[in-house]
Design goal:
46% helix; alpha/beta; Rossmann fold; flat
Length: 638
């Protein structure tokens, strides 16, 4: 037993020896290994300390709801409120600012209320204010400011001005200056407006009582000089009516409209001060464009700077021309159209002044542009007002809504000039249009007396002289316009497209007719035609669809037809299309037509073989004899 025990013990002890050997091996580990282990442990401890101090990498931060946080760490700083948002350099919120939106909502709302209260106390500058329309105004169909608007006569224009004044009074106190043209042709319109003053101001008085916004009125007149009929604005409407009715006619024929507006602004600009806080409106009543439009840019800048809005109750401008017509009634009831300066509707002439050769009943000067004259319309546009067309042309008229796609350039003149000089097409059009006015293009006669061959040859020879001048002039115009063809496709504005195509189309058509005319005369001189009907004594050149004057003329006719047809197709319903249609209605070739005229009774004929217009006479009673006699009518200056 003891043997077993001793043996077992011996075996156990022997088995344990390897373990004892392992401990002994550890003690024998090299020093460098121990040092390595110690340093690794130290590095791990240092990394843990740095991580805790610096926190996690913010680029890889995943936010979560904190269990606990100190609310004082997320206070919203009022001093940086204006730096956040569209006005700041950085539009993103920091973590603390984002948290403040959640935990301090009540505090933020309080801050917003305080900011709003501070903003409401700030005075807006009185100049160039933008009037906020009422809800009712937003739902009504009304023209925007700065445009021409047809209102249906004086009554419609005054109703529209009443609307404008009411809107102004809804905002603040208002000064309205009525600026009347003192020309004799405006006497009827002045009285019509005076008739409606009581109705206007009756409506405005009701509004004044509701809004407690007093309305001031001033009456000013202009002709050769400027007259302030109210040295200071008044409230007495009855007095204003009497002042308007008492305006005396100015027969000087001059209208210093722009100087008058400038004087009004200088005199009453104090009403726009921060102390008075008035809206100021100038309403020009005229039937012309104003003679002193060289002051346009200066006066427009004055009005814009001081906040004066300018409106005009006037006539439409003739299309592409300076001269329009005003109907004048003499003391005996006789009526006559007097030419006056009413245009053009653009900065420069953009339409050629060419005759419709051989076409009777065509008066291109009686075409309405559907717009006001440029200078006055531009002044209204620049200041946020309106040009109200009280009386349109007595001739051809066009849809105002359609013409809005063809508005002139109402920017400052220098920008218009810059735009023209950058385009060969626009420059060519302007040069050609102005050349037709500095040197008029006159169409030769188309009717020839032919009692005998010699008489016919003599008249044909006389007609060839102006025809040669015509051909040279028209060829020159065509050359000017052809210099702009290279840039034609770059033009994007419908107005310029229509204007250029019409111009070159009409110039080519007239050139074809001039060349053909000379050929026809030369042939008639060489071999005079024989009348088919006995007793006829006159040859008249008539338009024909058959071009018998050679291939060069036929080629020009083809080009002219292409340009004119493009105007008709692309600009239907406009003045340009109307003129192109008139040109195309008359063929560009020539033929001869015979007839008889009793020259003894026909009397003296003018260059177009039409009777000369007689001198206008007025029937008066001679105070000495008591008998009636005719005296020449005195010329009227309007």
């Amino acid at each position: 037993m003891s043997q077993f025990t001793n043996d077992s013990y011996r075996h156990t002890a022997e088995d344990a020896e390897p373990a004892s050997g392992a401990v002994s091996g550890t003690r024998e580990i090299p020093a460098w290994a121990v040092s390595l282990a110690v340093h690794v442990v130290l590095l791990l401890m240092l990394r843990s300390i740095i991580y805790v101090t610096a926190g996690p990498d913010t680029d890889n931060l995943i936010t979560s709801v904190a269990d606990e946080f100190d609310e004082s760490d997320y206070k919203f700083d009022v001093t940086v409120a204006d730096m956040v948002g569209n006005d700041s350099e950085v539009n993103t919120l920091t973590a603390s600012q984002a948290a403040s939106q959640v935990v301090n909502q009540n505090q933020q709302e309080q801050i917003n209320r305080e900011l709003e209260e501070e903003l409401l106390e700030v005075e807006a500058p009185p100049v160039n204010e933008i009037t906020q329309p009422s809800a009712a105004d937003m739902t009504s169909v009304v023209e925007t400011t700065g445009t021409s608007e047809k209102t249906g006569g004086v009554e419609g224009s005054i109703d529209r001005m009443t609307y404008e004044v009411i809107n102004s009074l809804k905002e603040r106190q208002t000064l309205v200056v009525w600026l009347f043209d003192e020309s004799g042709s405006l006497s009827v319109r002045r009285n019509e407006i005076a008739d409606r003053f009581e109705n206007i101001y009756g409506q405005l008085d009701n509004l004044k009582a509701e809004r407690n916004s007093p309305l001031k009125t001033a009456i000013v007149g202009f002709g050769k000089d400027v007259h302030f009929y109210t040295p200071e604005p008044i409230n007495d409407i009855g007095k204003a009516v009497n002042l308007v009715r008492g305006i005396k006619d100015d027969d000087s024929g001059q209208e210093v409209a722009f100087s008058a507006v400038g004087q009004i602004v200088n005199k009453w600009k104090g009403f726009r001060s921060a102390k008075n806080k008035h809206n100021c409106m100038v309403v020009i009543v005229t039937d012309e464009r104003g003679d002193d439009f060289e002051h346009l840019e200066t006066v427009a800048a004055m009005c814009s700077k001081t906040g004066f809005r300018v409106y005009c109750i006037g006539n439409s401008s003739p299309f592409g021309r300076e001269k329009g017509f005003v109907r004048w009634t003499y003391s005996d009831g006789f009526e006559q159209d007097i030419p006056v300066d009413q245009g053009p509707e653009s900065v420069r002439m953009e339409v050629l002044d060419l005759p419709f050769w051989g076409a009777r009943g065509v008066d291109s000067g009686r075409i309405s542009s559907g717009l006001g004259p440029y200078a006055l319309t531009r002044l209204c546009a620049e200041t946020g007002g309106l040009y109200l067309i009280t009386q349109d042309s007595r001739g051809k008229q066009f849809d105002g809504a359609l013409m809005k796609e063809y508005l002139p350039d109402y920017r400052p003149m220098r920008l218009y000039e810059q735009d023209v000089t950058r385009s060969a097409t626009k420059m060519a059009l302007i040069q050609a249009a102005e050349s037709t006015r500095t040197s008029r293009v006159v169409a030769p006669t188309i009717r020839f007396r032919a009692d005998s061959d010699n008489a016919l040859r003599a008249e044909a020879t006389d007609a060839q002289k102006p025809a040669a001048i015509l051909e040279h002039r028209v060829a020159e115009i065509v050359r000017i316009l052809e210099a702009g063809e290279k840039d034609r496709d770059k033009i994007k504005e419908p107005r310029w497209q229509a204007a250029y195509d019409l111009a070159i189309g009409r110039a080519l058509a007239l050139h074809a007719r001039a060349l053909g005319y000379n050929v026809m005369l030369a042939q008639m001189k060489v071999a005079p035609k024989t009348f088919e009907k006995e007793g006829n004594n006159t040859w008249t050149m008539k338009a024909s669809g058959e071009v018998q004057t050679g291939p060069i003329v036929r080629k020009i006719v083809t080009r002219a037809t292409e340009y004119l047809s493009r105007v008709v197709d692309h600009h239907q319903g406009t003045p340009w299309a109307y003129l192109a249609e008139l040109e195309l209605e008359r063929q560009m070739g020539w033929t001869w037509e015979e007839s008889y005229i009793n020259y003894a009774e026909a009397g003296q004929m003018n260059s177009n073989n039409e009777p000369k217009k007689g001198v206008l006479f007025l029937e008066v009673v001679d105070p000495k004899t008591g008998k009636k006699k005719l005296v020449p009518r005195e010329p009227i200056n309007l």
